[in-house]
Design brief:
single chain, 30% helix, 5-stranded mixed barrel
Amino acid sequence: MSNDPYTLAGEAAAALRAAAGLESFDVALVMGSGWVPAADALGETVSEIPFTDLPGFSAPAVAGHGGKLRVVRTGAGRHALVFLGRSHLYEGRVVDSVVHGVRTAAAAGVRTVILTNAAGGLRPETQQVGDPVLISDHINMTGANPITGTTFIDLTEVYSKRLRALVREIDPAIAEGVYVAFRGPTYETPAEIRMLRTLGGDLIGMSTVLEAIAAREAGLEVLGLSLVTNPAAGLAGDPLDHEEVLQVGRATAARMGVLLAKVVDRL
């Protein structure tokens, strides 16, 4: 395997094409914590490939992440790559490993990527647990960036206005918000949550942002979608718990799957 992350993504894409028996794919979806059951609503499963069968991938270490790459034929006849899980910085992975899935999708010909996640809600006065929220922008608090050197990428519009408008046509009531990414794995303190609210954050999580930056570097159109699984630290009386995140995901999986299926078929 190559040590160059872009070459490695090309090798993974070649292995993916061979394993799936397809030359190209139309869209990629990365399923966050609790989102994996929603993948069942996307269409017919053509094949499932363990991450560990592809160059550069490792099995996810987080509960709620499936560890497989599913190839789905949608109702409209499109071929979707569905990443059932992702890697995170807090697992001790380097940044290139965290964004390897997105780079592999780009190398496989995908031009659109949908990034989903479970998020803490920073605005409980307007957000309900179980609500999907479109990501309109982000604040990168991870201390990391997948791009090094003198490659300067414009991030004025990381999350596609066109795709967000398409989702609002499907679900006019859906809210939008700014997603803040921390490295994790600790949840944020109440003081940090007060700071993020002041800065204009609406959602808090430990993923998505680095993948979105890598996707924009590759020229992909990006849609980000969060599922509010809990109020952020200090905004409710209960302590934060990853199992709660997964429970909300399971409870809302069918609804999220229907939404994603409609979006994919209208791309």
